[in-house]
Amino acid sequence: MGKKKERPEAEGYNYMDTYGDLVTLLLTFFVLLYAFSSTDEAKWQMLVEAFTGSPPSSAVAIELSPINIGAETFTENTSGTSSESNQGDGLTNGSSQITSQEQINEDFDELYEKIQGYIQNNDLGYALVVEKLEDMIIIRVLDGVLFESGSADIIQGENMVLEDIGRMFSSSQSIIKQIDVEGHTDNVPIKNARYEDNWDLSAKRATNVVRYIHERYPIPWEKFGTAGYAEYKPIAENNTPEGRQQNRRVNFILERAVISDLKN
To answer: What is the pTM of this model?
Structure first.
């Protein structure tokens, strides 16, 4: 009986070729996914070299939008309306991208300086006062600028101060967490058909200011807060006309944004 001829060792292992092709295809697939998720010039060159064996001297790279699921950015367009888009990790303020709390702090300081410059350049020191705390900017608008005496109706037509304030708030809203508007009066009682007392007058003044700004500029309602304090938080004595005039005011309190809140 003759010896049975042995089958070559390579036979029976052809499935390895198919397995190798599958692994190669999977590797190619994941390389492409990685390239699409974070495309830049260096990675594009590496990808082309991997497939062609030569640098992409004549290759044309197609710019791809990065895939950043859950990374929310806030941008403001030139028409003044705000929009949201998933195009990066940061938050935008004008044309610059906010990427850190330090940048928010610097932009908040610049906003304070901008308000100071506005007051000085327009000789409004008699009507507007601005001060800065660590994480707040406080603007006091004194009597006679926004309202007639004893009224909560905003002066129409020539009230450019409130227009300019609203414009500055709108252009910097990505670095402002909260805008609180406070109404204050002197201690002279008021009671008429429109206003029950100074509480009523101060609260309606604050509310009307917020409505006025919101109707003209795309600042979300949730950024605003209002309060009326009547005569109970004076900044001067009420026993002189000058002191009472200082107490009749509207305060804007801007709270600096925190980047962790903006990204959530």
So the answer is: 0.63
